[in-house]
Amino acid sequence: xxxxxxxxxxxxxxxxxxxxxxxxxxxxxxxxxxxxxxxxxxxxxxxxxxxxxxxxxxxxxxxxxxxxxxxxxxxxxxxxxxxxxxxxxxxxxxxxxxxxxxxxxxxxxxxxxxxxxxxxxxxxxxxxxxxxxxxxxxxxxxxxxxxxxxxxxxxxxxxxxxxxxxxxxxxxxxxxxxxxxxxxxxxxxxxxxxxxxxxxxxxxxxxxxxxxxxxxxxxxxxxxxxxxxxxxxxxxxxxxxxxxxxxxxxxxxxxxxxxxxxxxxxxxxxxxxxxxxxxxxxxxxxxxxxxxxxxxxxxxxxxxxxxxxxxxxxxxxxxxxxxxxxxxxxxxxxxxxxxxxxxxxxxxxxxxxxxxxxxxxxxxxxxxxxxxxxxxxx
Length: 378
Known about the structure:
Blueprint: H1 6-9, E1 30-31, E2 36-42, E3 45-49, E4 57-61, H2 73-81, H3 85-113, H4 115-118, H5 121-155, H6 161-169, H7 176-180, E5 181-182, E6 185-186, H8 189-196, H9 200-226, E7 234-235, E8 240-243, E9 265-267, H10 269-293, E10 305-309, H11 313-324, H12 333-350, H13 360-371
Parallel strand pairs: 1-4
Antiparallel strand pairs: 1-2, 2-3, 4-10, 5-6, 7-8, 8-9
Helix pairs in contact: 2-10, 3-5, 3-11, 5-9, 5-10, 8-9, 9-10, 10-11, 12-13
């Protein structure tokens, strides 16, 4: 970790240096609306750089530099208001794991697109990727718990003396499983309050996540530790399918009638969306509960947001819409992308933001470029 003087940090336009106090700063790239800016420590202070582009990174900006750049609110909150040394490392790893979620979804799409060339091997590729997806979900929970445990155990002091004594005696574990699971069942909110002196909102957030976490953990442990085959998988013209009773999620409402391949199989995609978005939502709920009841320090970059940029962010945006009810088949992704472009093209016409807004072809091409890959001109 490099130490930089407050006077040097004042060179960074998005920082409220007075708000840093004893926190650690992850000095991210900055998009000022026209160009990229970075600062790297040297022996004589901070040196300012202006790269032509950013391929994959978290960055600071008032508005997204690209249509596919996304905000994960709980990551932004942790960076803005809880960026102590022991928090920065797991938060950075979480950002990388969300990028890995996108890569995993994109690989599954690649296997669907090229299923004819891959033949029977396509199913094996998908099974392997699904195992990784479940491992990734488990990793996200543990990384978040590492950060939350540090904040709760070392940065929070309860006014109630008896509760504070309980908190000190029973420190919040750094492993998510040890918090929410006891004797192979999920702990209730009351049990969590009694054992760790958690606030009611935090205890409720942990307890509500336990069933989802348990199913993901059980399937992941069966595959990784017991060597169980990740069930049968079928390749169809609309997407990959699994038996409707597979994976312990058979009765979940995220599978709707239109997801049935026939009477016995259902699309795998809604399960993928449930695992990815369910993991993000569970983490968000826990951090929001923490921030709602614990007075964290003020933001270090007020008026700015933390965006995540990655080469496969579009896959995350697509899977979010799948979780919200969009077509739960891989064959529906091209139509989803066309609808995004169409909506954006109409926006340029309606708001006269297109470079040639009266020309519908120009609006379409502009929208298409905005949703396309980032191109760096050297």
